[in-house]
Write a structure and sequence with these properties.
With about 675 residues, the chain is an alpha/beta fold. The protein has 3 domains: about 180 residues, Immunoglobulin-like (Sandwich); about 100 residues, CalX-beta domain (Immunoglobulin-like); about 240 residues, TIM Barrel, CATH 3.20.20. It has 9 helices and 37 strands. The strands form 10 sheets. The protein has an 8-stranded parallel barrel with strand order 26-27-30-31-34-35-36-37, surrounded by 4 helices. A 5-stranded mixed sheet has the order 6-13-11-8-9, with no helix packed on it. A 5-stranded mixed sheet has the order 15-22-20-17-18. Strand 30, helix 4 and strand 31 form a beta-alpha-beta unit. Helix 4 packs parallel to helix 6 and helix 8 packs parallel to helix 9. The N terminus is likely disordered.
């Protein structure tokens, strides 16, 4: 689901630090500190942690002072300090003759103190000047005026942004001039020294201490990360060792050396071949040793667990207008989407974990009797191509070089818990743009390659289904021919993400995406939504892609604000769904409702009862605890349900596991 203009589960922390040290002629020294607040963004029901406001580090060193553009204005007038002498002339001076800026500091706040008689208004100019430190490279030049009202003896401050870490110490100066209503006292100028950064000790470490090899995986990529100071060359040896898994029978032994040149901080990887015959779970180890130019980090060794092959009764197929399991029994899918893989990696939240801590607890899903999970994905993170965000900045969408491995391990863990998986292409963007939100359709630049790779990876796993594109909305943008472009692709004249702008690109149609999957030999079930964010299926049958394997189902999304929501017999919604379901299986891959105090879950209850009565499958959006008032199924990692939506879904799923009538 996509609601333009609203972001979800996003937070950014902006931190600025302040230091002023040294002695004035009178021996005084002043130090202040700035702690910027975290800005927390609210969330849409489906979208990402997008960048909420960073930059909360506005002048809080002096709580009554707000610094804007180099000019400091008091929020309110304050009485003269008790120590001020009304008989002596008013003076203005820097709090110190020298300031040291630590390597991690982003902002220096310079304090100007007022002494003597404060009865008259006063002001003073300030400015920076280059020394060995250069404006625009080492710091940002500032100048402006500080003002005091009559009777105000409180100190004022101004901010100087400090840029980048430094290899060597550099300095510049700060000078007061042009006082009005006061005279300058010593010191009227100060030297600011930007200290050299202290190198962080270099380390080499595996990205995790455990790997899980899915039943269909034949190659495990093991990533070694370099941390700390990369200025020197470094190397480390790696080797596998038998456990219950034996080299030559269960895997191919691997050993060697990874090397980094001076200045190279990029992760390195090596591959281990996993052999086909797997009847029981087995494990072996991978160990790093003999580091040169670095020390071993937090994970110098890892256990690799090879999952056994899938049960012959664990898989899903289309048979007529129903899903069936591998034994041919009719299967109703009831589950949830779990958001995170579409957004965390590309937004750089946590390079070590593309889930950002949101990976589901599979045992909790089992307790809810969930039998299917939907994983929204990002095409750039999977394909690992460098892209450009809305500000023109280059972005690595897989900063930990672990996105593919995480997806494969997640699928393996879900399957091991007896849960089917839907892989959903959620975020896309054409050209060099980063997929930082949802566009109106898949693109020919990347989406076809995405599905070719996904299908190649999971074509041996019948418990995985492919939802080709989350929510097409070609009918909501200009320059498209709606259903024809939905089926066959076409020229588009604008994008919606990472920014809304005019842009010429070609969308990929559902037929092209389906053909890419089938060209790999994959026989997996394919799910396809309609227009209007997958709520409109009116043109689905007349434009349905042709699947030579007849393993195709229709996906529908429904929320209370959509056009098609009614479950009343004879309504346009029921007629639309009934027509589609008479030809292919129908699955609601997203439905939502309000949650929290006062919520009853009545909309979700009506949707689930309607689906049960007609043999449709359904998944709630979403298995995340974002603290929203809608569409959160859970309130914590333990899987406790939200009031209303979550409680209704949990009770219904548990009931349906043993009963047919759960109205």
């Amino acid at each position: 689901m996509n609601i333009p203009g609203i972001t979800r589960h996003g937070w950014w922390l902006s931190l600025a630090l302040l230091s002023a040290c040294g002695s004035s002629a009178g021996g005084s020294a002043s130090t202040a500190a700035l702690d910027a607040a975290a800005a927390t963004a609210s969330a849409t029901s489906e979208g990402t942690p997008s960048a909420a406001a960073a930059g909360a580090a506005a002048a809080t060193a002096d709580p009554a002072t707000k610094v804007q553009g180099g000019t400091s204005a008091k929020a309110s007038s304050q009485p003269a300090a008790s120590g001020a002498d009304p008989t002596s002339p008013s003076t203005l001076e820097l709090s110190s003759g020298s300031y040291d800026v630590g390597a991690a500091m982003g902002v220096l706040y310079v304090v100007v103190e007022r002494g003597g008689d404060p009865s008259a208004a006063a002001s003073v100019n300030y400015t920076t000047a280059n020394g060995s430190a250069l404006a625009g490279i080492d710091y940002a030049a500032v100048s402006g005026t500080l003002s005091w009202e009559s009777g105000d003896a409180s100190p004022q401050s101004f901010a100087i942004p400090i840029l980048n870490d430094r290899a060597t110490a550099k300095s510049f100066s700060v000078t007061l001039s042009g006082p009005i209503g006061a005279s300058l006292a010593t010191p009227p100028a100060a030297t600011v020294t930007i200290l050299a950064a202290t190198p962080i000790a270099p380390t080499l470490t595996l990205t995790t201490s455990s790997y899980t090899v899915a039943p269909t995986m034949t190659l495990l990529d093991v990533v070694v990360e370099r941390g700390g100071d990369p200025s020197s060359a470094a190397s480390v040896n790696y080797a596998t060792a038998n456990g219950s898994a034996i080299a030559g029978t269960d895997y191919t032994a691997s050993s060697g050396t990874l090397t980094w040149a001076s200045g190279d901080a990029a992760p390195k990887s090596f591959s281990i071949s996993i052999l086909e015959d797997r009847t029981t779970a087995k494990s072996f180890s991978v160990t790093l040793s003999n580091p040169n130019g670095a020390t071993l980090g937090a994970a110098p060794a890892a256990t690799v667990t090879i999952e056994p092959g899938l049960s012959s009764t664990f898989g899903v197929q289309v048979q007529g207008t129903h899903f069936v399991d591998a034994s041919g029994a009719t299967l109703q899918l009831r589950g949830a989407s779990a958001s995170g893989l579409e957004s965390v990696a590309i937004q750089g939240w946590d390079p070590s974990d593309p889930w950002g801590g949101w990976e589901p607890q599979w045992s909790v899903m089992q307790a809810w009797h969930i039998n299917v999970v939907r994983l929204p994905m990002n095409e750039a993170s999977w394909l690992a191509y460098t892209c450009v965000d809305g500000n023109g900045q280059s972005v690595n969408p897989d900063p930990g070089n672990n996105y593919k491995a995480t997806v494969e391990q997640t699928v393996a863990a879900a399957n091991a818990a007896g849960i089917y998986v839907i892989l959903d292409l959620q975020w896309t963007a054409p050209g060099d743009y980063c997929p930082l939100g949802q566009n109106q359709m898949a693109d020919t630049d990347h989406s076809i390659d995405f599905w070719t790779q996904i299908a190649t990876t999971f074509k041996g796993n019948p418990a995985v289904m492919f939802e080709l594109f989350n929510e097409p909305f070609l009918d909501r943008t200009s320059g498209s021919s709606d259903w024809n472009d939905w089926l066959s692709g076409g020229a588009q004249t604008q994008i919606e993400s990472p920014l809304t702008t005019g842009y010429q690109w070609t969308s990929a149609g559902e037929q092209q995406l389906l053909d890419a999957v089938r060209a790999t030999g994959a026989t997996n079930v394919i799910l396809i939504g309609g227009l209007s964010y997958s709520n409109d299926l009116t043109g689905w049958l007349s434009h349905a892609p042709q699947d030579p394997l007849h393993q195709l189902a229709a996906a529908w999304h429904v929320y209370s604000f959509n056009e098609y929501t009614s479950t009343v017999p004879g309504s346009s919604t029921v007629d639309m769904l009934s027509a589609v379901a008479a030809t292919v299986p129908l699955i609601f891959t997203e439905f939502g409702d309000t949650d929290g105090p006062g919520s009853t879950g009545s909309f979700a209850k009506g949707i689930m009862n309607f689906a049960d009565a007609n043999g449709y499958s359904y998944l709630g959006w979403t298995w995340n605890y974002w603290g929203q008032s809608q569409n959160d199924l859970i309130i914590d990692s333990a899987g406790d349900p939200t009031i209303g939506f979550g409680t209704e879904v949990q009770q219904h799923y548990i009931c349906r596991a043993s009963q047919t009538n759960c109205d």
